[in-house]
Amino acid sequence: MSSESSLSAAPDHAEASRFPTSVYADRLARAAEIARRSGLDGLLVTPGPDLRYLVGSRADSFERLTCLIVPADGNPPSVVLPRLELASLDESAVGDLGLPVHDWVDGVDPYELVSSLLPETPRVAVTDAMPALHLVPLARRFGAIPALATGVLRELRMLKDDAEIDALRRAGAAIDRVHARMGQWLRPGRTEAEVAADITAAILAEGHTEAAFVIVGSGPHGADPHHEVSERVIESGDVVVIDIGGPVEPGYNSDSTRTYVLGDPESRVAEQVAVLQAAQRAAVAAVRPGVTAESVDAAARDVLAAAGLAEVFVHRTGHGIGLSVHEEPYIVAGNETVLEPGMAFSIEPGIYFRGQWGARIEDIVVVTADGCESMNQRPHGLTILPG
Ligand code: ZN
Ligand code: ZN
Ligand code: ZN
């Protein structure tokens, strides 16, 4: 993926942690241009998905300030960071791009340093990942609360290029391989936590760098969309919602839900999951350039409403995905964002019967020239495992 020598230390089987340097040069130039058009003096980006997007850095946030400054006037971006964190830039594109690095040592005021690199009373936007620990002293120094850079970066991050789509495809295939093995782990008599531990190991074994989330919602727990795992012992006859994912290099996430049942399902469960499957399919079929995000949400909702299930579909149909598991565009009523080729998001309607059971079916799709491509290929219906 890149010939940079800094990447050669990675094991041969590992994917590169970032794209070629030219990709970041282009992203930085476009971010500066959008910031300029937005009437800003610049962007301030601390560690997180925006920093990874702009310079390929996986640095973490600490109490000591690390911050990329992207001036809107086209001058070179620069990095302010603690001297003891210099090594965190090695794998990033900062060195190859030749960006100035202002390293500071304990005792120096890093906010003053950032301020000195900006016009007086600057109009800046900050990444939404900036901790309040850094935002508040910066705001105090600027004399104003900065804007969020989300609006500036959304049009860049929402539209994935071919290499990003390829990463999402690899992530989707990896999580499909985990779902394909579910019968090895999901059995009556085991706890949700035991099943989740096996799934976590498989998520890593299949090429993710982390198991970002593992939801095993069995029986009544499946009715809680945000349930994670518990010590509940899974029983014969349970309907089980499995929603799993994580990042593959260079940082793009998988996210896929399938619903399983241990033994033959009750006819009512089978019928209602069939309606849910039709709703998921209808939303996927509605995806193409030129339609709004909210129309895709409506496509799923209409199918469930026609079957009397509107009240039990308690969340939006989907969320954008990329370097963050949840990002724009959100597939939700009121979002009039017009879909364009390269946008990536989940289609994940669910039905939830409080205290009883729940079901959800989730694929990641990427908008193409005339429809969409699904990153997930596992069968969508209720998967029957031995009870
Ligand atoms: Zn959620
Ligand atoms: Zn999910
Ligand atoms: Zn999701």
Polypeptide structure, described:
This protein has 387 residues and is of the alpha+beta class. The protein has two domains: 2-156, Creatinase/prolidase N-terminal domain (Creatine Amidinohydrolase, Chain A, domain 1, 3-Layer(aba) Sandwich); 162-385, Alpha-Beta Complex (Creatine Amidinohydrolase), CATH 3.90.230. It has ten helices and 19 strands. The protein has helices at residues 21-37, 49-55, 94-97, 110-116, 132-142, 150-158, 162-180, 192-205, 267-286, 293-306, and strands spanning 42-45, 67-71, 78-82, 101-104, 124-126, 147-148, 213-218, 239-245, 247-248, 252-253, 256-262, 318-320, 327-331, 344-347, 350-353, 357-360, 363-367, 372-374, 383-385. The strands form six sheets. The chain has a six-stranded mixed beta sheet, with helices on both faces. The longest helix has 20 residues, at 267-286. The chain starts with 20 loop residues before the first helix and ends with a strand.
